[in-house]
Amino acid sequence: MLPKRNERLRFFPNFLDPQESAVLYDQLFHNIPWRQRSIIIQGASYLMPRLTAWFGEQPYTYSGVTHDAQLEWPSEIQELRNRLDEIIGIRFNSLLCNCYRDGHDSIDWHSDDEASLGTNPTIASLSFGDTRVFEMRKKPPPGHPVDYTFSQRVRVPLVSGSLLIMEGATQADWQHKVPKEYHDRGPRINLTFRVICPEKT
Ligand SMILES: O=C(O)CCC(=O)C(=O)O
């Protein structure tokens, strides 16, 4: 059992074997209804530098983007959800999918801390396709200046078939991003399983 204020990151680089990951990559690439959505930043609308899709009984809103509820989960995703349930003991009810088409696609610094995820959410992230670096930086303590110059940092290469689990106060205490790459990269698909609390949407 994780103490209440602790953050925990667990990484399983070989959660799926290379052959299974390659088959899944292909299925996910073709079966997920990928779309490039717009994001609102300081009142202006920009195309997101990646493709996304959402599965879940509730809609999901972040950064001015709302994904409608989507009840039909592709069978290969159902299967992955069942395996995560067996290992982590959590029945995830929602999934945000990201597709980084090449090294120019990215996601900027943020925490998965929307009210609909509740306090100290557990988020399970699966990666397929080309490796991208997952960067984390520790937030300054409450009441301190928002300055990340000397903050603690973690970098995790998210290889195909890997599972990253963020738990406890990870979202409250840290931000994460997948930066653009200087050298080009092939496509990468990321599935982040979450539990949305219906009463908080
Ligand atoms: O692509 C990834 O590994 C991270 C995705 C992410 O940060 C998010 O969906 O909130």
Q: Roughly how many Å apart are the termini?
A: 27 Å
- Helix tally? 3
The oligomerization state is single chain
Helix and strand sequence: EHEEEEEHEEEEEEHEE
**Coarse morphology:** globular
CATH class: Mainly Beta
Biggest sheet details? 6 strands, antiparallel
CATH architecture: Sandwich
* Overall number of structural domains: 1
The proportion of strand residues reads: 35-45%
Low-confidence stretches: none
Strand order of the largest sheet: 1-12-9-14-7-4
Which secondary-structure class do the elements indicate? alpha+beta
Ligands present:
2-oxoglutaric acid
- What is the tally of beta strands? 14
Radius of gyration: 16 Å
Average per-residue pLDDT, rounded, comes to 94
List keywords for this structure.
201 residues, alpha+beta, Jelly Rolls, six-stranded antiparallel beta sheet, four-stranded antiparallel beta sheet, 3 helices, 16% helix, globular, binds 2-oxoglutaric acid
